[in-house]
Amino acid sequence: MSGITDLRTLLASLKPVLVDGEFVFVSRPLGKYGDGVELNPIATFAENEGLTLVIPKDRADAAGEQYCGIFRMITLQVHSSLEAVGLTATVANILAKRGISTNLVAAFYHDHLFVPSSRPQDAIDALTELMSQVELES
Fold it and tell me: Measured between alpha carbons, how far is 46 from 99 in angstroms, rounded to an integer?
């Protein structure tokens, strides 16, 4: 099942949903896939410096893991194509204009935004405004 590629359609259909809980990014230097499986990460990424794990904050705390920053996850419910052009840039730009940092993770079906735990409602408000603007322009 292929996702949507048309930018206007994507932006009008973002449907941001705040996921329960707080998340952190943990690094395992020299780590490889499979490391940290006991933390049940929701995402992993292998980098030259180590394996990054995205895990719920409570699991990180219980395991004594070190992390910088606490984030909330917002999932864009629109089924975006991995080949869509402009979605990530537009979303990041809208949030940047409001001073909201975001770490975007594109998965097969949806895009997931990790924003500071103090700003999720601000981010959702910005995305909702963006959706409304696109609908009005149509």
Answer: 28
Q: What is the mean pLDDT of the chain?
A: 94
Residues 27-48, buried b or exposed e (16+ Cβ, 10 A)?
bbeebeeebbeebebbebeeee
End-to-end CA distance of the chain: 26
Using only the alpha carbons of the chain, give its radius of gyration.
16
Where do the structural domains in the chain lie, given as residue ranges?
1-21+71-138, 23-69
Q: At 32, is the pLDDT very low, low, confident or very high (cuts 50, 70, 90)? A: confident
CATH code that applies to domain 1-21+71-138: 3.30.2130.10
The helix/strand/coil state of 107 is coil
Q: Is 51 left (phi over 0), alpha (psi -120 to 50) or beta?
A: beta
Rounded to an integer, what is the distance from CA 133 to the centroid of its chain?
22
User: What's the pTM value of the predicted model, to 2 decimals?
Assistant: 0.93
